[in-house]
Amino acid sequence: MRSEDEFRPDMGQKGECKLSVQEYKPIYSAKEVSKILQISINTVYQLMNSGELPYLVLGSKKIRGSDLERFIEKYPAEKVAVNESA
User: Which residues lie closer than 8 Å to 30 by C-beta, 6 or more apart?
Assistant: First the structure.
């Protein structure tokens, strides 16, 4: 049985893909972060090396879940122009 906090594609009855949220983990690898953010692993390393995404060195570079959440929250969101002449 799947928990509500998992992030896995789920095929609906008509074959459409539904996504649910991933279960929170305290530590993520760069590869996991690249999948979560849907960016390349090279971009994840660039973010870490530039200081934009804090990391720990535990054998290899790892990202705390709390740091990833902070990064996502502070990342500027795109503003959508609203056409009010309707």
Answer: 41, 44, 45, 48, 60, 61, 62, 63
